[in-house]
Structure formats: structure tokens, C-alpha cells
């Protein structure tokens, strides 16, 4: 699960926002290290169904704001919790549902939004690179809106080797690329599927692209615009949602 750039991957992670904090507090795989709340935030967590002892230290909204990044919206709740335990690749491969693979997607809000889409469409999990991926906390968790506690994340050291393992295990490994020969809605979904998505701007790395079984692209409507239409590409999180819809239709 841990895709941390921290020197200590077992260090507590900081979460903020109503959905992120409440979901973590209800997750038996987490332990609360420290909990802060405004008076309204304290009322929210008092209504949760959890066995954990959760008596928050009450702060004013202004005091709470000093515990999170300057641009963060804490919504009256901040918590330090233990990281989620590592998830094995094999444990998501056996679920029989699509897997999303992220090739060095570093924006935490994008990864959080992809987690949320994965929860909505029932993906088996998300594979990330151990390096060049955001830690599962903060902005990522808030954007995921509780999905971080639901969707398994597997962090791997060598993405190309992982893709080869998936292919050897019977997965059709799809690389989302605008040069793909066919659109993703044409794929036979009655088979194990993994779809690899690259970072915005860079896209898939060369070795990643070459390791995929097949390159596919998103379907594009006829807008009357030429191929250089500025809306020809989508944000990676939006593309992931479209992809998961296509693979689970």
C-alpha cells in the first residue's frame, strides 16, 4: 500500500477532511495516533460506529488550519493514523475485476480521483510505482473521499516486470495511448484486464508502452474540430473513469 517518499514508510500519515478522516476512523486496519477537531467535527465523529477510542483535541478552525497545508480545506477534522498494511499483487489479481496501473502519476489529487472512480466502478485495485508516486495521505486521501480505505493500492519497484507478470498470468495488459490501434470500448471484457495509464504530459514511458499487450485509445466524439482540438486529451483521472466504465460495462 505504501508509495511513500518518506524515509520511514511506517510513520503515521496525516489525513484531513470529513470523508477521509471518518472513513479511516471506521477502518479496523487503521489505528488513530492523534485526532483534532472543531466543535462541529467532534459532533461528526461522535456519531460514527467504531470501536476505537476517539476523543479529539478540540481546536478552533484557525488553529486546525495550521496542521494542514496552506491550500487545504480541513472541514473541521484532522487525524494522524497508522499507514495501511501492504497489499500483495496476488491478492488483487484473484478478484477477477479490472486493475488500474499508474505509470508514475505524481499528482496526489489525480491519484485520489482515480481511487474514487475505482471504488465507484468496482476495480480490483490500483498498482503504483514505489517511487514517483504520492504518499497515501493528505490531498490524495481527501480527493479520494473515503475510497482510500476501500480500494487496495499495490506499490511495486519494477513496473515493467509487474506488467509482464500480469500478462503471463493471463491478463490482457492494455496501455492507454492516443496511438492505440483500437478504442477501449472494443475490448472483450470477458477476461482478466489491467489498464496502464501514464502521467499527464509524459504519457506512458517507452518500456512501459512496449511491455503492454496492446495499446488502446479512448473513443472520441465527432465535435467537428480537427485533430489538434485542445480537448483531444483528458485529465488522467477523467480518463481513468471513462476507462473503468468501458471495462465494466
Provide a compact summary of the structure:
With 249 residues, the chain is of the alpha/beta class. 31% of the residues lie in helices and 19% in strands.
Search tags:
249 residues; 7-stranded parallel beta sheet
Structure description:
With about 250 residues, the chain is an alpha/beta fold. It has nine helices and eleven strands. The protein has helices at about 20-25, 40-45, 60-65, 90-95, 110-120, 140-145, 160-170, 205-210, 235-249; strands spanning about 15, 30-35, 55-60, 75-80, 100-105, 125-130, 155, 170-175, 180-185, 195-200, 215. The strands form two sheets. A seven-stranded parallel β-sheet has the order 7-6-5-10-8-11-9, with helices on both faces. A four-stranded mixed β-sheet has the order 1-4-2-3. Strand 2, helix 2 and strand 3 (about 55-60) form a beta-alpha-beta unit. The radius of gyration is 19 Å and the shape is elongated. Mean pLDDT is about 90; it is low at about 1-5.
Oligomer classification: single chain
Overall strand count: 11
Counting helices, strands and paired strands, the structural category is: alpha/beta
Given the C-alpha coordinates, what overall shape results? elongated
How large is the share of residues in beta strands? Answer: 15-25%
Largest sheet: 7 strands, parallel
Please give the share of residues in helix. 25-40%
C-alpha end-to-end distance: 28 Å
Q: Give me the strand/helix succession.
A: EHEHEHEHEHEHEHEEEHEH
Averaged pLDDT: 90
Strand arrangement, largest sheet?
7-6-5-10-8-11-9
H/I helix tally: 9
Radius of gyration: 19 Å
Low-confidence stretches: 1-5
Amino acid at each position: 500500500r505504501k508509495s511513500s517518499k518518506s524515509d520511514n514508510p511506517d510513520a503515521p500519515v496525516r489525513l484531513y477532511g470529513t470523508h477521509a478522516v471518518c472513513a479511516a476512523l471506521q477502518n479496523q486496519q487503521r489505528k488513530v495516533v492523534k485526532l483534532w477537531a472543531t466543535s462541529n467535527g467532534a459532533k461528526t465523529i461522535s456519531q460514527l460506529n467504531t470501536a476505537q477510542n476517539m476523543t479529539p483535541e478540540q481546536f478552533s478552525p484557525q488553529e486546525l488550519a495550521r496542521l494542514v497545508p496552506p491550500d487545504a480545506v480541513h472541514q473541521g477534522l484532522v487525524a494522524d493514523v497508522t499507514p495501511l498494511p501492504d497489499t500483495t499483487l496476488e491478492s488483487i489479481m484473484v478478484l477477477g475485476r479490472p486493475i488500474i496501473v499508474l505509470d508514475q502519476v505524481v499528482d496526489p489529487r489525480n491519484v485520489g480521483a482515480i481511487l474514487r472512480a475505482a471504488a465507484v466502478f468496482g476495480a480490483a485495485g490500483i498498482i503504483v510505482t514505489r517511487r514517483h508516486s504520492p504518499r497515501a495521505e493528505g490531498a490524495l486521501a481527501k480527493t479520494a473521499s473515503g475510497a482510500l480505505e476501500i480500494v487496495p493500492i499495490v506499490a511495486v519497484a519494477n513496473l515493467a516486470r509487474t506488467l509482464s507478470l500480469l500478462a503471463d498470468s493471463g491478463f490482457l495488459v492494455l496501455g492507454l495511448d492516443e496511438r492505440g490501434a483500437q478504442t477501449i470500448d472494443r475490448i472483450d471484457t470477458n477476461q482478466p484486464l489491467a489498464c496502464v495509464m501514464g502521467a499527464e504530459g509524459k504519457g506512458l514511458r517507452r518500456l512501459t508502452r512496449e511491455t503492454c499487450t496492446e495499446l488502446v485509445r479512448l473513443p472520441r466524439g465527432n465535435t467537428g474540430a480537427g485533430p489538434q482540438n485542445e480537448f483531444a486529451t483528458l485529465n488522467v483521472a477523467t480518463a481513468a473513469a471513462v476507462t473503468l466504465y468501458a471495462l465494466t460495462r
